[in-house]
Amino acid sequence: xxxxxxxxxxxxxxxxxxxxxxxxxxxxxxxxxxxxxxxxxxxxxxxxxxxxxxxxxxxxxxxxxxxxxxxxxxxxxxxxxxxxxxxxxxxxxxxxxxxxxxxxxxxxxxxxxxxxxxxxxxxxxxxxxxxxxxxxxxxxxxxxxxxxxxxxxxxxxxxxxxxxxxxxx
Amino acid sequence: xxxxxxxxxxxxxxxxxxxxxxxxxxxxxxxxxxxxxxxxxxxxxxxxxxxxxxxxxxxxxxxxxxxxxxxxxxxxxxxxxxxxxxxxxxxxxxxxxxxxxxxxxxxxxxxxxxxxxxxxxxxxxxxxxxxxxxxxxxxxxxxxxxxxxxxxxxxxxxxxxxxxxxxxxxxxxxxxxxxxxxxxxxxxxxxxxxxxxxxxxxxxxxxxxxxxxxxxxxxxxxxxxxxxxxxxxxxxxxxxxxxxxxxxxxxxxxxxxxxxxxxxx
Lengths: 169, 265
Hints:
The structure holds two protein chains of two kinds.
Chain A: H1 6-13, H2 26-29, E1 32-38, E2 41-46, H3 55-69, E3 75-79, H4 92-101, E4 103-104, H5 118-125, E5 139-143, E6 151-156, E7 162-166
Parallel strand pairs in A: 2-3, 4-7
Antiparallel strand pairs in A: 1-2, 5-6, 6-7
Chain B: H1 16-38, H2 47-75, H3 81-87, H4 97-100, H5 106-127, H6 133-161, H7 165-182, H8 190-197, H9 204-221, H10 245-253, H11 255-259
Helix pairs in contact in B: 1-2, 1-8, 2-3, 2-6, 5-6, 5-7, 5-9
């Protein structure tokens, strides 16, 4: 039976890629909230990114597969809702990888507060998102949603490439 | 997968039936609006809108899974969220009539989303600080997504309302059509009162005040006119008395489980 240290477990989990954005790991995304031994049972707390994100079930499966592959026998995955996931938990290393992959990383502190009156809407449209390809700030939002719930669709007016923006959440 | 490690629901047994009903209202509103919204998948007026609507639907289905999961736990009869969603008949559904109405055109769909989101946002804001931690954690999770949905719907209502003559006329017609269904969200019955008195849920009349302020603000900016007729004409959905439209929706949504009982992915 494997009784690895929790530090070792975190290192193994850092090898599990996000299924939809495979350049970043589940630990870099900040969705692994806790790893602890409860007697001989390993308990791993995972938080969903978005409530309806179809990747959630796949992530649980990949985490389980990775830990089984490393020899963990007694494993309990817990779904933790509180505190709710925020993009503030995405590590700096992951932000660089997102950019290199063609996805603009989230601009912290710009999450929706549901109070988008005229003033806020105008301010929101001034949010500057840098094109991950050419670095231009001459970009426009095309749609509030992109290829997954966590992204919005943008286009660069200089290099003309469309790109995804990982929304602040 | 195992969902252990969570606090059990702490409530008086006497409150269980009302709380089950109340949680089904939260879950069913999200489920039915989510299903209606998903009907646009592949039919949106523009690719970006199509994708946005499908993603919005996904968020709502996610909320439904959490609320109905908790409802099943409170009921304590061994049912699951999936069983509640796929194996109840129309009269057991507890959603408001507003969310089961057919989509109409894109303007009507956006207007309905806005009118519901503005309520949903205020409700979840209150519930996110509910002393019942299981309720509060689901509300806090859903609130972040609903805030974004409300911003998006508000933006579109303004663009379409204060848009072309055609889009303005369609948005006004949508508002006039949907308005008499909105009052149901704020019409409290014995279930709502029991949950408010138990300190778990907010007073619906407080929500109505804030909802009205948001709706007036956005509709004014959208150059749309608030209807003068009563807003609480079509009620009963929360008690299981639905329009004929819900049955057709369920026939499609529940088909697989009815035809192949117990089928799993």
